[in-house]
Design goal:
By secondary structure, this protein is mostly helical. The protein has one domain. Helices cover 84% and strands 0% of the residues. It is built from 2 helices and no strands. The two termini are 21 Å apart. The relative contact order is 0.22.
Amino acid sequence: MVALSELGRLSAGLLCAGILGMVFMLVYLRACDWADWGLMTARARSRVAVVRRQLPALAAGSIGLAGLGLLLGLVDLIGVAQ
């Protein structure tokens, strides 16, 4: 088993958080497509609308976290190789 450095653990955590955020958004969008909107209250529909408006910003944040994790992982690999 490979022991990760602090930077390696941080990069793995950021990468996992970014990927999980994107998976959550895809599942949420799929659930919205399958939902029966007629059975929801107006309050629930408005909450869903708010979250759907914020999805592009959340996707950008998740991609940013995953990218930062990937970048830190590469920096860690380069540092270990030297």
